[in-house]
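Why show two proteins at once? Because comparison is the fastest way to build intuition. When a single record is shown, students tend to memorize it. When two are placed side by side, the eye starts asking what differs. So, the first record is below.
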Amino acid sequence: MATNDRQADTTTTTEDGPFLHSAMSKPPELPWPDISNRAKWSVSSYKFGFGVECLRDSDPDTFWHSDGPQPHSITLEFPCKMAIQKISILLKFSQDDSYTPSTLAIRAGTGPSDLQDVRIVTFTKPEGWITFDVSSEPNDDGDGQSPVYAYVVHIIVAQNHMSGKDTHVRGLRVLGPIDDELGTEDDIFAFKNPEYKHYETLR
């Protein structure tokens, strides 16, 4: 069964950039570290029993169910400025139909008052976990996208399939860069050579 799950992982390139798609219901094993638990989570609205906890419980049979005016949104607030590389989201059009998001707008910043649009992604009848870069800016090496450095990430459901009003999201993870030494923006100026590493714990 695990072999079939691995074979189901595919990468597709669209006009929105490369998407990593996993047909597994459980969160896929990815090289990027999951930094979701470092953040305070909130949602714009929810039905009782279908709140923000359903985004984080790794159960594909539960889901966040919005229950308020559009646009619906998910907000993550980190205690320090974090390097944010990718978002993984679990969507199931076959079960959720018009409740399934078709367009997401990703915003980031230092607080709610200065959020900037960093990415817009679109889906067509998605099934499974979809992983995509938060930024559309290429990195210095030209082999991927740069991370976004932010205290706050705001994920807006800009549109649902078939113009649905409320939305279902069955799972969400926020991932950092593979090089976790760049976990926060301040770290990029830290001394990393062996001599300084040897003495960095001395008091």
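Second record. Ask yourself what differs from the first in the token line.
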Amino acid sequence: MPPRDDGDGDGACLRSAAGFGKGVFACGKGLFDCAWQCVQFWTPLTVTVVLLWLIYRPDRFRPRVDSAVLAALDLDAAPANGTGQQRMLRYDLAVDMSFRNSHGRLSIRYLDVGATAFYNGTRLGPADDALPAPFRQGPKNTTVLRPAFRGAVAVDAGVAAELERERVAGTVHVRVSVALTLMYKVWLAKEIFFYKYDCWLWFPPPANRTPAVFDAGTDCWAA
């Protein structure tokens, strides 16, 4: 019986391999075209955003505490039945904060403004009154906000001991945290930035219902 000619089988294999190669090439070319279109679309936008950021430098913006009054930062009486129990910390703090737009032609829109006071990591509470937002601040303009914090909060023995130590040393420290959502608009471009700042204040301990005044002024720093 004569041997079978496998030429047709070999040709089919070659044609299948060639078709597979064309498919892989077409798929790779499609991916490359898609990637190139993405590069063409995003590169000008990214360059524009970077240039605007370098020109206007929103990272240089920071609020400032001009003055503050600490009317109370007092603990209630220590428990008579032992140590380690929580105590109530009564606080009364008012702060004057300025927000300066130093740009010559650029306005800033404040979408959200929040302030919270802390003592030794313990949250004293947000400002009593909601801070105004949204609002627009023109170029070369300063806006002054006056958040106030009043109330009482339970603190553990460690916080109570730290406050008593600072009162004996003659200086108590309070941190005011400020959270901002700002929008810059340049022509048709809008950029939104989220910032959080820490403002450190120090006071002589208020005593005999005499408020302690902080009038040194201090810049707030990005947290």
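One difference worth noting in the second protein: The radius of gyration is 32 Å.
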